[in-house]
Amino acid sequence: FLPFRMLYARDLANLMMAGRCVSCSHIGLAGPRVMKTCAQMGLATGYAAALCKKHGATPREVGKKHIAELRRLVGYETAAAS
């Protein structure tokens, strides 16, 4: 599993990205560049944007305060239980 914190910018409060633009080293990009993984990152980024709007929060705040809700939306609990 990839950490949510790699989907938002370190220096800009309201910028998220998905796909090959994520925050990681060239070595760390080996796994996330697979198409299915990129699609899941896009899904998580979209749900996180909705949570930002719903809670009036930044992506970083979603990662700290609302991560359980984000995990539920992307199906993390059901996938982890299988």
**N-C termini distance:** 15 Å
Q: Helical element count?
A: 4
In terms of structural class, how would the helical and strand content be classed?
mainly alpha
**Strand count, sense and closure of the main sheet?**
none
Bulk shape: globular
Helix content: 40-55%
State the assembly state of the protein chains.
Answer: single chain
Topology summary:
Layout: H1 35-55, H2 59-65, H3 67-74, H4 76-81
Helix pairs in contact: 1-2, 1-3
Features:
82 residues; mainly alpha; globular
What can you tell me about this protein's structure?
The chain has 82 residues and is an all-alpha fold. Helices cover 51% and strands 0% of the residues. The chain is built from four helices and no strands.
The gist of it:
This protein is mostly helical and 82 residues long. It has 4 helices and no strands.
